[in-house]
Automatic annotation (TrEMBL):
This is Hydroxymethylglutaryl-CoA lyase YngG. It is an enzyme of class 4 (lyase). Keywords: Lyase, Metal-binding. Pfam families: HMGL-like (PF00682). Residues 8-275 form the Pyruvate carboxyltransferase domain. PANTHER family: HYDROXYMETHYLGLUTARYL-COA LYASE. Gene3D superfamilies: Aldolase class I (3.20.20.70). Its EC number is 4.1.3.4. GO terms for molecular function: hydroxymethylglutaryl-CoA lyase activity. The keyword Zinc-finger does not apply.
Amino acid sequence: MSRWPAKVTIKEVGPRDGLQNEAAPIATADKIAWINLLSETGLSYIEVTSFVHPKWIPQLADAAEVAAGICRKDGVTYAALVPNEKGLERALGAGVDEVGVFMSASETHNEKNINKTIAATFPVLEAVVKTAKQAGKTVRGYVSTVFGCPYEGAVPVDQVLTVADRLLAMGVDELSLGDTIGVATPKQVEDVLAEVLRRFPADRIAMHFHDTRGTALANIVVSMEMGITTFDSSLGGLGGCPYAPGASGNVATDDLVYMLHGMGIDTGIDVERLTKAALFIRDKIGRPLSSRYLQTVRS
């Protein structure tokens, strides 16, 4: 039996997590055109925006316009991040397929990112999850700073388990465990996942790695060895967290697809169409992107 899965699901978070850290405004029409290109690549999941207050993430102030303007493709889930019930109301009005809620495993990052303690965040998210479920939506839960916090340093795995347990108990369908500042190493991923998978099934867990120190792909390989088959990534390596100093972009979707295809693992993604979408957003942003694969492409 192969140590690798036959198929991996890639969840593209570039339009949200990738763009939220870009200082220069990206035109709404360009965001819509980019998402439409992504829809033609074979991706089955695209996180298109975030319904946070524009004061906190100005780049995503056009969330409703983007969600309303894209061409929906059958078989693709169009998701959005939601901070509270007001954001959820806007997201439901825009017709998103899935709602993402978020919080941190470390207290200080949670307060910087959400302006609430961890304890105070749970009832807010519980209300969001309940209403989203009543509206017939699936819900994804993002847990940040799983492998380290920019303010507190190492994060005890018990804190991760406590947050994960509460989110799943309130009805979240899938947890995405995030290496927000890109500090994780393969041994640490193995250790954390060993504890997580004692409590929760692998098919409820996704991994979300940032490539700050160049270890994201190695961490994904270890995660696959432990039974994880769903990974978040951002085309071109776009991204970073506004409330995590020093955090660079997400693992690049194009780098991840290259590695997985080379390992004989199916993603359902067309590399040529993916590259076209990467070159499009690179030109709109106006600077080279960090992915290694894109650096090999002549354009």
